[in-house]
Amino acid sequence: MRKSYLAAASCLICVLSAIGQDSTSRAPSSTTLVHLPGKGLAQHPFLYCGEWQNQSVDNQTMYLVRKGKVVWSYTNRKHGELGDCTRMSNGNIVFSRQYGASEVTPDKKIVWNYDAPPNTEIHTAYPMGKDKVLIMQNGSPARLLVLRKSDNHIDLEIDLPTKSPSTHGQFRHVRPTKAGTFLVPHMDFGKVVEYSAEGKELWSVAAPSAWAAIRLDNGNTLISGNGFGYVREVNPHGDTVWEVKADDLPGIHLSTVQEVSRLHNGDTLINNWTASLPLAEQPSTVQLIEITRQKKVVWALRDWKDLGPASSTQLLDEPGVPENGDLER
């Protein structure tokens, strides 16, 4: 019990320190939607991972949902948050688990594993082809790694600067670009930086408490704002060209925005992590939101019977090969 409480407290401290304010200043909107747009669990088939379920980071579970039902689940029996999950074309899922990263098959066998060294954490695990995985290893020093799965040989290593003395609050979702560079959300510095494979800084933009960043096909960058509750698209000059703020969507409050993705149809999918809210408030909050460019909500998922807080979601009806970066659009 004490271990679960300390882990939960650590995660909440990470959120509050990143936004630089107390939790009362981020209260949910008093108006909540009773009837939500979309078809609930039946809107899309999807892979769903959420951290800090039931106010704990023990026995975290990921889910596959098809035709409105949970058809498969996998529970991580190791202590740690599930924060980054990708289902590859062969059905295997690569995922981070805070103190390491693994790959699990549909029949729930672990076929690849990497344990984080002492005093480090891993919140990025992203497949690069079928044979390699991108890892962001929080620590001192913090290291971006590309590992060869067959033997965990390090094919690429980049040491990255950090500001936070807390390993937990340094980085979340780091992603490769089609140009061979890496987009790194420095959550502790409050900015997103693009690095070359040699570790040279090529581009940066201010982004408070940046959680995730994706290079879009149009050359812009899509960023999520963690406890600041925003989704922002910036152009190569760093100008904001599209943004959704915490209370821009009527009846839906963005609490802590974690993973975001741009869909093939141009919509944006938002993971609204709500585990920092009191337990009594969670059932009334929305976990996933799909919105159009005009900020119209076409799908809002509020399901606390089958699922918990939302950190990472992959829609399985999106075209493309995930391990080839096709879902980064």
What can you see in these coordinates?
By secondary structure, the chain is mainly beta. It has a single domain (13-19, 36-322), classed as TolB, C-terminal domain (Neuraminidase). The chain is built from one helix and 24 strands. It has a four-stranded antiparallel β-sheet, with no helix packed on it. β5 and β6 (100-104) form a beta hairpin. Residues 1-10 and 15-30 have low confidence and may be disordered.
Please describe the topology of this protein.
Layout: H1 2-19, E1 46-49, E2 60-66, E3 69-76, E4 85-87, E5 93-96, E6 100-104, E7 110-115, E8 121-128, E9 132-138, E10 142-148, E11 153-160, E12 175-176, E13 182-186, E14 191-195, E15 201-206, E16 212-215, E17 221-224, E18 231-234, E19 240-244, E20 256-262, E21 268-273, E22 288-291, E23 297-301, E24 312-315
Antiparallel strand pairs: 1-2, 1-24, 2-3, 4-5, 5-6, 6-7, 8-9, 9-10, 10-11, 12-13, 13-14, 14-15, 16-17, 17-18, 18-19, 20-21, 21-22, 22-23
